[in-house]
Automatic annotation (TrEMBL):
Residues 152-167 have a biased composition (Basic and acidic residues). PANTHER family: COMPLEMENT C3, MACROGLOBULIN / COMPLEMENT. Pfam families: MG1. GO terms for biological process: complement activation. Residues 1-79 form the Complement C3/4/5 macroglobulin domain. Residues 129-167 are annotated as: Disordered. It comes from Lynx pardinus. GO terms for cellular component: extracellular space. This is Complement c3-like.
Amino acid sequence: EAHDYGGNLAVTVNVYDFPAKKQRMFSETIALIRETDHMGTVNINIPANQELTSGKEKKFVTIQADFGGTVVENIVLVSSQSGYIFIQTDKPIYTPGSTVLYRIFTVNNDLLPVGRAVVISIQVPANWGPRHTPGKTQGETKRLRQRKRLWKGQDCRGRKAKKCVEP
């Protein structure tokens, strides 16, 4: 975006490794023009051989936008996962010893249903959290699952309900 700019403006977007900025992974130039209100989009594609998704540690890249001598820079976390998971429970507040029913909705970045299997892993510290009982697929869709959880010994009153069902 180039607010209140009078003419057309060429912007070069570069993506570098972080923190060294020694390797340029992507580069593209876009023209911000008056007809589009000086707005534009660049789809960034980083080759798979860059190994940004290997290992469990977080990976970052540096994104630079060069506006003819003025450089704007931002550090961005790289994620190989795309989409959202929505968790719905049948209780706004958990009561110790009660059964909590929940459903998981998986959608992509456009908020459309994900049409493939999704593995959900629930991790809790030892001696804390639920006894997990797998449920059955509900309705006509395989991406909507309902499962029972029994949380024992923990009081979630006063906390957000989401905190009581998150791994």
